[in-house]
Amino acid sequence: MTLVDAAVYVDGRRVASGTAAEALTEARARGGMAWIGLYRPDAAEMNELAGLAGLHPLAVEDALKGHQRAKLERYDDMTFLVLQPARYLDATETVEFGEVHVFAGPDFVITVRHAENPDLATVRHRLEGRPDILAHGPYAVVWAVCDDIVDQYQPVVAGVENDIDEIEDALFSGDPAVGKRIFGLQREVIDLHHATTPLVDMFDRLQQIVLESSGAAEAPAIRDVDDHARRIVTKVEGFRPTLESALTVHATLVDQENNEAMRRMAEFGLEQNEQVKKVSAWAAILFAPTLVGTIYGMNFDHMPELHWSLGYPMALGLMAATSLTLYVVFKRKGWL
């Protein structure tokens, strides 16, 4: 059911409820205001409501498509706002974003939610307890919705700030998951930046619209929300360079670890190479007497050295000479 609530307010008090069409008709008949709350309406419902309230086609198209950046558009005597509320999820340490569209006309306010957050029923209930505020008309509702959304940014900013502090503490711990966490936080901060940065200009323009429509000299309530939004934007803008610095430090630490690993591998390779040299040298030294012994161990009949009285000493001398020569050669080359 996309219609959450539709009510008529006269002098700030709720006097009737019904369908969206009934609320609009009753509000105009009584000279009051209709507040219609919708949750993910389809095209047929939005187009029907657009015909009844005289909504601009471009604003209706944006409301149907969703996934819009925060903005404020003015169409004749109707104001259209797109807001991106956020909430911090402690369980997953992530930020969840929603989307709210607000149509404000001379005698109606239409709020369209595309996510569970924020709970506009609570905002309505709170305003209904303050008929003195609600009596100011549609822009009192716009103020209340904007104020609620901006207030919800406070715990989000605090949660992100705490996550950044944790990352700064974990940078030198050697945890390989730190890099992934930094990238995740950067994405959240970018989304938060997109959601909050346009608010300053939006609320400046909204103040002018309220002053023009009411004829008042000032709009302190909107200015207060504007001040809160400016503080939020300043905080969020400070997160990005902090995360960029953390990412640079992390990349430097990873490079240092990789360089250290490469150095250890090079040292191990050199050490292994020295061992191979020693083994190879001793194998060559031992191979020389083995070769001599193998030759004279074949016992052929026609081997003069076998019947020579100096044959045995000669074989031993040859073995010793070749081994000693190879030892001296390898020793000079540093293999032994």
From the structure above, extract its key features.
336 residues; two-stranded antiparallel sheet; alpha+beta; rod-shaped
Could you describe the 3D structure shown?
There is one protein chain. By secondary structure, the chain is of the alpha+beta class. The protein is 63% helix and 15% strand. It has nine helices and nine strands. Strands 2-1-3-9-8-5-4 form a seven-stranded mixed β-sheet. It has a two-stranded antiparallel sheet with strand order 6-7. It is rod-shaped and about 140 Å long. The mean pLDDT is 86.
SSE topology sketch:
Blueprint lengths: L2 E8 L2 E5 L2 H11 L2 E7 L3 H11 L3 H9 L5 E5 L2 E6 L2 E4 L4 E4 L2 E5 L3 E6 L6 H9 L2 H4 L3 H33 L7 H37 L5 H77 L14 H22 L4
Parallel strand pairs: 3-9
Antiparallel strand pairs: 1-2, 1-3, 4-5, 5-8, 6-7, 8-9
Write down the oligomeric state.
single chain
Distance between the termini: 88 Å
User: Would you report the number of β strands?
Assistant: 9
Number of domains: 2
What is the mean predicted local confidence, pLDDT?
86
State the CATH class of the largest domain: Alpha Beta
Give me the CATH fold name of the largest domain. Answer: Beta Polymerase, domain 2
Radius of gyration: 41 Å
Computed structural class? alpha+beta
Largest β sheet strand count, sense and barrel closure? 7 strands, mixed
| CATH-assigned homologous superfamily of the largest domain | CorA soluble domain-like
